[in-house]
Design goal:
This protein has about 110 residues and is an all-alpha fold. Helices cover about 85% and strands about 0% of the residues. It has one domain. The chain is built from four helices and no strands. Helix 2 packs antiparallel against helix 3. The radius of gyration is 20 Å and the shape is elongated. Keywords: Membrane, Transmembrane, Transmembrane helix. This is DUF2304 domain-containing protein.
Length: about 110
């Protein structure tokens, strides 16, 4: 299998995962934007790899597509960080802390009883 085809498949898988995450994200606009931008970036990477897999010469279009994909990915990371700073991840952190506390209580009951 051609390395470009393999990269194309991986990029499409990541784009699908991020698009699904964006679809399921409710009430967190910056996080949703980050997932959407990430999915778009991976689609741009997939398009670049498709062009290279078909044997297209590496020209200005591929350079622009690569720069666009990297820029979208960086903007997605920045949006995710802005969402975290705005408290959009707080619910997840509270849920994780609650699960840890429940686990500790269960563990104490098992050890003590």
């Amino acid at each position: 299998m051609n390395e470009w085809v393999l990269r194309l498949i991986v990029a499409l898988i990541f784009a699908g995962i991020l698009a699904y995450q964006a679809r399921t994200t409710v009430g967190r606009p910056m996080t949703r934007r980050a997932y959407t931008l990430g999915a778009t970036a991976f689609l741009a990477f997939a398009a670049l790899n498709l062009a290279l897999a078909t044997g297209a010469d590496f020209g200005i279009i591929q350079i622009v597509l690569g720069i666009l994909a990297v820029a979208l990915l960086l903007y997605a990371v920045a949006s995710l960080l802005m969402g975290a700073r705005a408290g959009e991840m707080r619910r997840g952190q509270e849920s994780a802390a609650k699960m840890i506390e429940e686990f500790k209580k269960r563990r104490e009951r098992q050890d003590g009883g």
